């Protein structure tokens, strides 16, 4: 079953590429292996840099599934999730991710990503910034 679901994710990646988007596809399966939802990358056609299939599925799961149900799901994806998608997956409570192509393997198939070109500054104004956060997580 795992290989069939990974092959479906790869088909979704081909759909993304055929529609003019980066070639990534993913699906979310329930505990019994039934496909709950499928997505592919639409970052170019949607003009949305966050329109990765893994992020879309994590958002769907967090919105549509109970935490108990989400924990029993498996995401099958054509490529190892990026950092942005990994963060969303962690917060969504999905139980498992299975990927076909690793980040290292992907790197051999595309040019290197440009170095980050922004400056990150902080922390600053701790006494003020902590006020809306203090006590929220207790």
Automatic annotation (TrEMBL):
Ranges where the CMP/dCMP-type deaminase domain occurs: 1-120
Membrane-traversing stretches: none
Pfam families: dCMP_cyt_deam_1
GO molecular function terms noted in the UniProt entry: catalytic activity
Classification via SUPFAM superfamilies: Cytidine deaminase-like
Superkingdom of origin organism: Bacteria
Protein name: Nucleoside deaminase
């Amino acid at each position: 079953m795992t290989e069939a679901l990974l092959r479906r994710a790869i088909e979704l990646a081909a759909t993304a590429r055929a529609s003019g988007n980066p070639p990534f596809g993913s699906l979310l399966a329930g505990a019994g292996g039934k496909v709950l939802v499928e997505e592919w990358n639409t970052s170019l056609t949607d003009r949305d840099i966050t329109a990765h299939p893994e992020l879309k599925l994590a958002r769907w799961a967090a919105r549509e599934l109970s935490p108990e149900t989400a924990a029993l799901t498996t995401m099958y994806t054509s490529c190892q999730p990026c950092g942005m998608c990994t963060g969303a997956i962690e917060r969504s409570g999905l139980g498992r991710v299975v990927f076909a192509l690793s980040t290292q393997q992907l790197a051999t198939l595309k040019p290197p990503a440009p170095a980050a070109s922004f400056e990150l500054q902080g922390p600053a104004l701790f006494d003020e910034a902590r006020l809306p956060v203090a006590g929220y997580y207790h």
